[in-house]
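Hi F.,

I've been meaning to write this up properly since the lab meeting, where we talked about keeping a consistent format for the predictions we share between groups. The idea is simple: the sequence comes first, exactly as it goes in, then the structure tokens exactly as they come out, then a line or two of notes. No screenshots and no reformatting. I'm using this chain as the first example so we have something concrete to point to.
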Amino acid sequence: MLELERTTARFVGTEDSIVFGMGFATNTLNLPSLVSPGCLVLSDEKNHASLILGLRLSGATIKVFRHNSMYILIGKRSDTG
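Output, unedited:
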């Protein structure tokens, strides 16, 4: 896997990279390292189950909005103060 990560980093022009074997685990296990209690996440109601689970595990406040509804999304954002 190390060679794949080096090759990927060279390809995208970055110093390093991380390659994960499957998307569900990637989303579920890494979201809690990006958001935590005290964070607000605005989440589309049709997000994949892996994203929903990862957000729940993070402890962040989650506000769900109707799929692709920018007007409702803007309303949720302004409700947060």
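Notes:
DSSP finds four helices and two strands in the chain.
The longest strand covers residues 40-44.

If this format works for you, I'll send the rest the same way.

G.
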